[in-house]
Amino acid sequence: MDYKLSLSDFNSSSSEINEExxxxxxxxxxxMDFLFQMSNYExxxxxNFNSKVSTLFNKNAASIIAPDSIIANxxxxxxxxxxxxxxxxxxxxxxxxxxxxxxxxxxxxFKPIYDKxxxxxxxxxxxxxxxxxLGRYSEILEKEPIAS
Length: 148
Hints:
Strand order of the largest sheet: 1-5-2
Radius of gyration: 18 Å
Strand content: 5-15%
Distance between the termini: 13 Å
Oligomer: single chain
Structural class: alpha+beta
Number of strands: 5
Low-confidence stretches: none
């Protein structure tokens, strides 16, 4: 939640600010990632997976399409919200992994945790996108709590 996005972070070839456009959209490029590789023995005795969970921002996939810089900056604010929300859910994922990992857990123990949190995050994000009309109502977006 420390990194502040800027319009220059949205490097997808589809990114465009053009007054001839009548629509606007954003793809933030934010995602929660979990990747580990270890032997069965290591896995059995590993409880802390914090270093294996990360929040990624893919600048080459991130896209803002807007008719003007005002809307582009509103989309940027909602993109920042989504990035911060993804970081929050990455933290929740780390916490749940730690709580639920047992010595004899199956290697796929994380899947239901990940799926539940990903679904919850998507619902929160969709509601915020809807309520703010993709950031057009910045006063609503500014009141959205990220930390919970």
